[in-house]
Model the fold of this input.
Amino acid sequence: MRYALLIYSDQEPWFEKSEEEAAKATAESMPRWNALFEELGKADPNMGGKELDDIRTAKTVRVRDGEVLVTDGPFPETKEQIGGLFDVTLPDLDTALEFAAKIPTAERGSIEVRPIVES
Done:
């Protein structure tokens, strides 16, 4: 079954960090990310994933009564924003949930696991 593992976190604290603090935090977390990439790659050699640019570059488009509304940023009713995703094929939901729990961002944000509709 194919799953999207959507990575949500509050990006605002990152904007408050100095370049040095952000670089240090990134360097400290990379071994865990690399271990996850390796393990997910073994579970699904065709796994894909992308990190999204930060929320300051996002736009949200809505159409209401035929009018196109464009607002800055992600969906405004939440503090957490989607920061990236994995597109993986795994045997079942339980396995997808196990991998979601291994994503380092799960400790400060949340991971949404959603089956991908195959047409």
The longest strand covers residues 81-89. The beta strands are 2-9, 48-51, 59-64, 67-72, 81-89, 110-115. Residues 19-43 form the longest helix (25 residues). The mean pLDDT is 88.
